[in-house]
Structure formats: C-alpha cells, structure tokens
Amino acid sequence: MLQLNNICKSFRTNQGIKTVLNNVSLQVKKGDRIWIAGESGCGKTTLLNIIAGLVKADSGLMIERKGIDLTDESNRAKYRYDCIGVVPQGICLISQYTVLENISFVLRMHQMSKEQAEKKALNVLQKLQMEDLAFDQVKRLSMGQKQRVAIARVLALEPPIILADEPTSALDDSSSQLALNLLSNVSSTLIIVSHDRDVASICNRRYRFSDGTLRDFV
Ligand SMILES: Nc1ncnc2c1ncn2[C@@H]1O[C@H](COP(=O)(O)OP(=O)(O)OP(=O)(O)O)[C@@H](O)[C@H]1O
Ligand SMILES: [Mg+2]
C-alpha cells in the first residue's frame, strides 16, 4: 500500500549538513504492524514525518498504492487526508478544547456530523476507560492522560495507516496494555516508533533505525 525507495533527508545544522535518512527503503503492505526502535536523535520522527507526508524527502521515491507519486505536494496532501492518522511524539492537542472536542474535531474534519462524531468519540473514550474525562479541558490533564487522548483520537478516526511516535512513553502499565490491545485490534496498518517491547510484541515486522537506515531488529 506504500513503497519508500531510497529516501534521503539531510538537515543544515551549525556543524554543517547532517544526513538523517540515507537511502531508506520500505515496503508497507496493508495490515502490516511495523515497529521501529533506535537511539535518540537517529531520525525516527523524521522518517515518520516523511511517511506522514508532512516533510518532503530530499530524494528518493514514495509511492502510494495504484502508483500515485507522493513526491508531488498535491498528491501528498490528499494522501495525508485520506490515509494517515498520527499519534505525534509531541501529542499536539488543542489545549483549550475538551477531550471530546479534540477527538470529534478531527472526525468532523472528515465530514462526520457533530452528533456522529461525538458519539464515536465517547465510544472510544469508553473503550480506553476515559469517559469521565470527556468534558475536561485538555490543558488540565496529565501527560499520560493527554497521550491517551491522542491515541483515542487516532482510534476514532480509523485511518488506513496509523503512525504513532512513542505512543506509550507516558503511560502506566495498565493504560499501556489497554491502548495496545485496542491498537492491535484495528484494521489500520500500524507503523510505531517505540522503545517499548510490549509495543514490539503486537507488531509483525521489527526494525532498528541506525546510521540513517532501517535494519532488521535481531
Ligand atoms: N527541522 C530540522 N532542522 C534541523 N535538524 C533537524 C530537524 N528535524 C530534525 N533534525 C535533526 O535530525 C536528527 C533526527 O531527529 P529526529 O527527531 O528524527 O530523531 P528521533 O530519532 O526521533 O529522536 P528521539 O528518539 O529523541 O525522538 C536530530 O539530530 C535532529 O536534531
Ligand atoms: Mg522522535
């Protein structure tokens, strides 16, 4: 459903040009659950941002199913909207909105009615045992609670591809197990950056990112 061929990405830094992705290739098939680990600063978030269509690669090819070329910005924008849901490393919620509003807002952006969106949001919050937080403003939540809201948001959206960047980093064991159980039961293809072995255990393909490229995790 998605093919990355020889993707390269460098950044200009005070020390000069830093190559972060060096000929990364990856074939993602529908239903894959991909786990990516790697040292801090090695380029995992950059890779997810490229797969999300948020950052453009310097070179290489990214092709969606049916051969659509994602190096083209307008193709990338449509693909982002149609196919991608993200649990970002920085969580990225609207702090003055309630938990329910944060989730239903994204669903409404995808043409769902207010009633349907709120119903779906509440349903996912119940599954995550968070319904008591539905009407709380996000700015009053703990880090772990915010992380669960970001997970709830992507679960409610049910996009074809879920990209999650350290989604369990602030969660206790039982919240993490609950979230992973829900993630492992979605039909979405999963690409998860994490150091958490419990996350690895719900995935069928495991990689270590190092020296700018993906290697099989052994
Ligand atoms: N926009 C940018 N401009 C310059 N350098 C950047 C930019 N984005 C990322 N980098 C650099 O690219 C490298 C990889 O960053 P990235 O955030 O992808 O790492 P990471 O593997 O996700 O790290 P962590 O595990 O700490 O989240 C880092 O050295 C970072 O400083
Ligand atoms: Mg990162």
Question: Could you explain how this protein is built, in words?
Answer:
The strands form 2 sheets. Strands 6-7-8-3-9-10 form a 6-stranded mixed sheet, sandwiched between helices. A 4-stranded antiparallel sheet has the order 2-1-4-5, covered by helices on one side. The model has no long low-confidence stretch (mean pLDDT 96). It has 7 helices and 10 strands. The protein is globular, with a radius of gyration of 17 Å. Helices cover 35% and strands 28% of the residues. With 218 residues, the protein is α/β, with parallel strands linked by helices. Helix 3 (99-109) runs parallel beside helix 5.
List the SSEs and their pairings.
Blueprint: E1 2-13, E2 16-28, E3 33-37, H1 44-51, E4 59-64, E5 68-69, H2 73-83, E6 84-87, H3 99-109, H4 114-127, H5 143-157, E7 161-165, H6 173-184, E8 189-193, H7 197-201, E9 205-210, E10 213-216
Parallel strand pairs: 3-8, 3-9, 6-7, 7-8
Antiparallel strand pairs: 1-2, 1-4, 4-5, 9-10
Helix pairs in contact: 3-4, 3-5, 4-5, 5-6
Bound molecules: adenosine-5'-triphosphate and magnesium ion (MG).
Adenosine-5'-triphosphate binds next to strand 1 and helix 1.
